[in-house]
Design a protein that fits this description.
2 copies of one chain form a homodimer. With 362 residues, the first copy, chain A, is an alpha/beta fold. In chain A, 32% of the residues lie in helices and 22% in strands.
């Protein structure tokens, strides 16, 4: 076969790039680098159905290659809708055979939180890179086990922190990094919505529900990302105004954080209240975001007149494209497992504070 | 002396109105009703000098009739500047003789908080109505003693809650009253400023300092007035980033409130942070104020597009005019001693929470 010079150079460059890669999974059987990584979504609930699958129609570095579901009717629907080959459709029993499927480069775990650990570990053992939805897991021990499994199997782990890929969120993160208005003094961070569902995993303790891991992680990230610091203590109060629905887990969580610099944060999250905003007061100015963690339209303003209002096509598409680009280039992920663990460490302390009624050191 | 019919009717009407009045102090020696009440300011610090005295040049129902000060040079300056008769100038020793001065209808106590009780009680015993600056006093016991002294002496007690006279604040109070957006679910209320002073009563425990009683009462009122309810529990954390200045009292206080309806509030106040805002999330909408407790320019917006932005000439003038009008008409005061007590009851619980590290029931 005759090879043109351009093709030769291209293949040589790719071979060079390939040495940077941590996993053979990024290559097709012929070891030719892919231009898009194949993603298999595990768990076909609302987030996969309404957000991730549509986003994967817009991605440039990723495509919907496979699905893992326990519901045959969903498999059938998705197969037709997204033209997914039968061989790329798994259930929870035969999931581990995904190891032998070169179409699947990344397994994206979109299951209820209590199942994250099992499926991240199984995906890692199958030699696949893993994306995992937030909250990373119900406990620090789970998160550590997930990180270890990925390290042991030489695959990467990214948490589905779409917001950290959003330039509007990055804008306020940068204000802290650059000390644009001096030190951060006080943060108020709220994230909640009225959830009318009555029998969802978000209301089940066994499945990892409760508002804290779900919307609460956005309220927490507002404070962590706005300060650029990790909290050293927390006090939290859990409450419920619909005890008939929130029998096992909290509907609302309020918590106060203390940071090493002396900055303080007051955070609120709820499945009973529509709210989504961030207010940061610095030594010499302020910043506001509202919404602060929406799927789109995050925007804000600062005391010097700066407006934060970057348009992005699709947040989840940007997240998956950037994570896949990092996997292909062997560069750092924006939100690796360690970042998910940082949140869960605080979440665990928050529940401990609720239980003890006292401030908990982190 | 010949009396015109108009004069006769006028005097008859006034005599009728007089029966509504609770104290003879509202009349001059000749028992002719005054058109303006004479106010004596006790304590000539910043607030009297820069806010109340100028406001008393604009009032229609009150005028600056006298002063009480321990500093002879201040007495001299004020006497000249405001044309105050020598006989209406008192010091802290001869203050009680104010009882015999028909020019003074109201004693306005503008001293450090730890001195409020003594001077309110002495003013009440002198038969004068009393205005008292916020915080009403350092303890519930003090407040109760002040209320009792005024009741016993048949004089009225108003707390200098200028904000409750501000139509911008009344606008958000009405939203809760009318349940415009349904129940209140979550309130965030912040009030603070960077105080560069190093040796002020605000930094002295003995004088009733600490941010909680000062700016903290605005943060607390934001939550109380936005819900229209009294809190039933509180958790609070005190902190200080300038321990060399805030040796005796807190620079910053954060507290979480629980209300009978299930509404929750998160409040922050500080002498180290410029911040002044209120955010209320209701069942079916939201309201924001910023600033929420300024001397002027308080303004806000609501989720239905309503703008809150009433122009007022002078907040303190409006407060004193309305309080004096109520005294003259014998009608209810907007913020009587009982309203000051409501705040101090929470403030006391806040300090108890700081001391115990636990949630305190109120």
């Amino acid at each position: 076969m005759k090879m043109k010079r351009r093709d030769f150079l291209s293949k040589t460059a790719m071979a060079g790039a390939a040495t940077l890669l941590s996993s053979p999974a990024l290559f097709s059987g012929s070891f030719r680098p892919k231009d898009k990584l194949g993603i298999a979504l595990v768990g076909l609930g609302y987030y996969s159905t309404d957000l991730l699958a549509p986003a994967l129609q817009l991605t440039e570095k990723a495509y919907l290659a496979g699905i893992v579901t326990g519901t045959p009717s969903k498999a059938e629907t998705w197969k037709k809708k997204y033209n997914i080959p039968e061989k790329n459709i798994y259930n929870y029993q035969n999931f581990d055979q995904i190891a032998n499927n070169p179409d699947i480069d990344v397994v994206y775990v979109v299951l209820p939180p209590s199942m994250h650990r099992e499926y991240v570990v199984r995906a890692a053992k199958a030699g696949k890179h893993v994306f995992c939805e937030k909250p990373m897991a119900p406990s620090v021990a789970d998160c550590e086990a997930m990180i270890k499994a990925c390290n042991d199997n030489k695959v990467k782990l990214a948490i589905g922190y779409r917001c950290q890929h959003d330039p509007n969120i990055q804008a306020y993160m940068n204000v802290a990094k650059q000390q644009k208005f001096g030190k951060v003094k006080m943060v108020t961070s709220a994230a909640g919505y009225f959830d009318g569902r009555t029998n969802h995993w978000k209301q089940s303790k066994a499945l990892g529900g409760g508002v804290m891991g779900d919307m609460g992680v956005y309220a927490l990230q507002g404070a962590r990302l706005a300060t650029g610091e990790e909290p050293i203590s927390v006090f939290a109060q859990a409450s419920t105004t619909r005890p008939e629905i929130y029998k096992e887990v909290e509907e609302t969580m309020m918590f106060m954080l203390e940071f090493p610099s002396g900055a303080r944060a007051s955070c609120q999250t709820s499945f009973g209240i529509n709210m989504n905003y961030l207010q940061v007061n610095y030594e010499k100015g302020w910043l506001k975001m509202e919404p602060q963690s929406g799927y789109n339209g995050n925007k804000g303003s600062m005391s010097d007149g700066t407006i934060i209002n970057f348009a992005i096509k699709n947040q989840q598409a940007k997240q998956m494209d950037e994570d896949c680009a990092a996997l292909m280039a062997g560069t750092a992920l924006i939100a690796p497992g360690e970042e998910g663990l940082r949140d869960i460490r605080v979440v665990e302390a928050i529940y401990k504070s609720v239980k003890t009624g006292k401030v908990v050191k982190i």
